[in-house]
## 1
Amino acid sequence: MNVKTVEGLIGANTNVDLINTPLRVFQDAERKGDTAAMDRAMGYVNECQDKVKEYKAKADEGMKEDAKEAKTENNKDTDMVEISEDSKAAAKQEGDSEPVEPDSKDSATAADAAAAEPVTYTKAGDISQPQPESGANISVSV
């Protein structure tokens, strides 16, 4: 986790907790009718709210940096394949269809896979046969 994220979250949480004190002072001053104390207390509340917004922005920035870093970390483990223009042209001349992009999905294949029965594989990689249900009934009386 990024330092900015941690600092932002802790700072925002601390300032949210700090707002309770001037709010309590504001409520006491309101009961007493002391408008000057109410104004001072609301000034402190507004300062704390501003700090919460600043820390939230810092946490958001840190989270963006975390996401960017995670993306680059994941790309290190991925092999990239690039097809040259000459290879694409040669495939087209041989009558092959247009190359399929790796991110495209075939909706018919996805629908067929969803409709298929679930399959269980053994440790060797073979499809295991489902066990037939015994159909035996057990009755217990006490």
## 2
Amino acid sequence: MKASKMMLGLLVVLMIVGGVACGGGGKYASAKALMGKQISIINRYADAMDKANNAQDVVAALNAYATDTKDLIPDLKKFQEQFPEMNDQAEAPAELKPEMDKMQEAMGRMMTASMKAAQYMQDPAVQAAQKKLGEAMAGMK
């Protein structure tokens, strides 16, 4: 169940970034930068999980992802406050399509890589790292 909650949290982050990015033009150039940061964070996590061979590796990947996510949240919130209208748009403009495609690819990699953690979920250190990630994700609320 914890893995499901983590996936839900990650999807919420994707939806928020996607919603935030739905502007386009020069006015929303910061959306591209913000999406680029999120994509890099997701890819670093997926890479780390792909390389994980034991519970300690999974813990390190989860903790790094939690820290990166927590560090990104103020930027996401600032952008949401600056452009609240972005939350209601259903589709990104054409000029952001490349970023949205990269984001979807990164999310797919992340979800696949996260399944590797399932085999270590009984480890207390992995559970603690999952909790830390959940707390970081909760900061989006």
## 3
Amino acid sequence: MRGVIDFYRRNPIVLVVAVVVGLVVSLLAASGDSESIVTEVVAVGAVGLGLGLFIAWRRSRDA
């Protein structure tokens, strides 16, 4: 658990993006505007994958 907290302290933008994406998906699910839950899961997965790739690219560039 300590590692997760340290990660977000070093990368506050990741925390902000995660919270915003979670809020948007929650609001879409609550409003019923989405076609299906699969679309929401795929959207969250795509954003998470993209964010993870960005972090990996940035770390490799700094090293």
